[in-house]
Amino acid sequence: MSLSKMLNRVANEMAFERGKPFSNSDFGNFVRRDLVQEAKRHLSFWPFDLELKASVGNGQWAAVPWLAFFDPLITTTATKGFYVVYLINAQDNSIFLSMNQGTTAVYEEFGRRRGREVMKRRSIDMSDRVADLIQSFSRDPIDLGSTEDLPAGYEAGHAFGKRYASSMLSEDECLTDLREILHIYEVLVNRGGLTPSDVMASEVQGQTIEETRKLVLSQRIERSSKVRRAVLAVKPPKCEACGLMPEIDYSFDGRPEQIPLDVHHSKPLFELAEGEAKRYRVPEDFLVLCPSCHRMIHKMDNPSDLGALKRKIRFKHMREVY
């Protein structure tokens, strides 16, 4: 079954399935497993590094089932960050492809009513940041046919997207629109996502908006837990500049991912072209540095020049075997 037919099935059958027991539902398993696998099959041919998840509820039927696409640099959960998602209105069987935001985290910080206002403002900022790319999509509000808190949050968090009437979503249109909005998602991440421009500039002190965006993206890559785990799994637990070894110098005996070393994205910034297929390679584009060396290399003219950093070091670590 094609992706479009699967989405149409969810839209057409969700209202009926909600009248059945939630536990061990074949329909629920179809959404969580088969729908995700079919979407992943298409992603395997596309240049996007994304994680997928679908849901029809947690312990009980949800008002709005969904299939979401997460950039791990931003989020791996529908509760926070921003992501691309299919949302189903089970009342009129319509399907929405949406650039949306995590509702739960915003509700926890601002409360429900104010949180929805915050998400509406952020959705405008998201749309404006990629206004040059969204001509194929609509900024019009979406109606998910429910007054429950989470659907109301999805409606408030919607930035732009497209609505498909019941059983009218074709496979060609489905895949064309999905690939286009996933490309826009990647560009939105590269341009700073939800982070205001003045905040980005204050964090990295870039000369131009383009340089600032690339620096912020590089920082996102370095701070990604997924990237950190992958790099530390294949590189020795030692600062590549000064030679500090936490296991010896600090008697560190914790888990490898908790070792007090940083992962530095050393790929030259000029090579980070907007919308490129692969933002980084592990381990080729990374250095493992102690926090001091990491701060120092970011102050250099070329933050990828490990040799220049090594030549600046004037101290040695004292190691004794007790």
CATH architecture of the largest domain: 2-Layer Sandwich
Query: What is the third-level CATH name, the topology of the largest domain?
Result: Metal Transport, Frataxin, Chain A
Order of helices and strands: HHEEEEHHHEHHHHHEEHH
Contiguous runs where pLDDT drops below 50 for at least 5 residues: none
Average the pLDDT over all residues and give the rounded result.
90
Count the domains. Answer: 2
Strand-residue fraction? 5-15%
How large is the count of helical segments? Answer: 12
Q: Briefly, what CATH class of the largest domain?
A: Alpha Beta
Give the proportion of residues in helices.
Answer: 40-55%
Mind telling me the C-alpha Rg? 23 Å
What is the spatial order of strands in the main beta sheet?
A: 1-2-3-4-5
Classify the secondary structure makeup into a structural class. alpha+beta
End-to-end gap? 66 Å
Q: How many beta-strand runs?
A: 7
Please describe what this structure looks like.
Strand 3 and strand 4 form a beta hairpin. The chain has 322 residues and is an alpha+beta fold. It contains 12 helices and 7 strands. It has 2 domains: 188 residues, Metal Transport, Frataxin, Chain A (2-Layer Sandwich); 91 residues, no CATH class. The chain has a 5-stranded antiparallel sheet, with helices on both faces. The mean pLDDT is 90.
Write the layout of secondary structure elements.
Elements: H1 3-17, H2 26-43, E1 51-55, E2 66-70, E3 82-89, E4 94-101, H3 104-110, H4 112-129, H5 149-157, E5 160-164, H6 171-190, H7 197-204, H8 209-223, H9 225-234, H10 246-249, E6 262-265, E7 286-289, H11 291-298, H12 306-312
